[in-house]
Amino acid sequence: MSLFLLLILVALVLGIIGFTAHGLFYLLIIGAVVLLADLVYAAVRLRHAGRRRVAR
Fold it and tell me: What are phi and psi of 41, to 5 degrees?
């Protein structure tokens, strides 16, 4: 969970810097890519967590 939150924070910071700083638009793009990768990571973790069931 902490990796997910860290990547969200990094994406947010890169996006803000890329949006506000002149000539650093590529940071906004990198922030968006990191955000998408983080969402895919979270979706995969949630899907695999649902399959783990305790055998009774």
Answer: -60, -45
